[in-house]
Write a structure and sequence with these properties.
The protein is mainly α and 217 residues long. It is built from ten helices and no strands.
Length: 217
């Protein structure tokens, strides 16, 4: 009898499952550990089932890069281009990326940047992504009346600050980060956020001021 869809999936896994497992190994042990047999064992599927989804290991690695590009680069660009009534709201749209892994996956970003230290090809992909992201942030400021130089400097400052958070693996409680958000907004835009702007931002992330640990605890 032919296998059912459920039986077929159990035997082969799925493309996303292979990619998820590859990302986990990349994060845990580096790109050298991302190999077909360890992935098959992790997924508890046949090694040969890999070839239902990928031509070879290089195709899997290319798919990891594509997932990162779509998730993080396009995710950040979409947020920078999202509708906003003011530059403050525009910045808060971008800040959504740093708090919502569905928009921007910081763990994936760290893993790809670590991989780039061993691969000139991946490093080139990083350079291209950095340029595209900073350009999107620059356009965001220019669209709201900032001159080109100021727009680029502000965009670069926002972006490099967050990449610093990621590469340093900064662990910051939500309460602490949220308390710092108004100061970051004012530094980056020259304008203090209004109460209603912060309320909308907080609501998007299910945050109520005063919850959680206090800074310095």
């Amino acid at each position: 009898m032919p296998a059912t869809d459920a039986q077929d999936t159990k035997w082969k896994g799925s493309r996303d499952a292979w990619l998820d497992a590859a990302f986990e190994l990349l994060l845990e042990s580096g790109v050298g550990s991302v190999r077909i047999l360890p992935l098959a064992k992790r997924l508890k599927v046949s090694r040969t089932s890999f070839y239902w989804f990928f031509k070879d290991r290089e195709a899997l690695l290319d798919a990891l890069i594509e997932r990162w590009r779509e998730k993080n680069t396009q995710g950040l660009i979409r947020q920078a281009e999202a509708y906003a009534d003011s530059i403050v709201e525009a910045i808060l749209n971008v800040f959504d990326c740093w708090l919502d892994p569905q928009l921007f996956d910081s763990q994936l970003e760290f893993a790809i940047r670590s991989w780039a230290l061993q691969s000139d090809e991946v490093a080139q992909q990083i350079d291209a992504a950095d340029d595209a992201r900073i350009e999107a942030l620059t356009r965001m400021f220019e669209a709201r009346g900032f001159d080109s130089l100021a727009a680029n400097a502000r965009g670069r400052t926002i972006y490099l600050t967050q990449i610093g958070y990621i590469t340093m693996k900064t662990d910051e409680a939500l309460e602490v980060r949220m308390r710092r958000i108004p100061a970051y907004v004012e530094i980056f835009t020259g304008q203090a956020p209004q109460t209603h702007e912060l309320r909308r931002f907080h609501a998007r992330h299910g945050y109520a001021p005063g919850q959680g640990a206090q800074e310095g605890d």
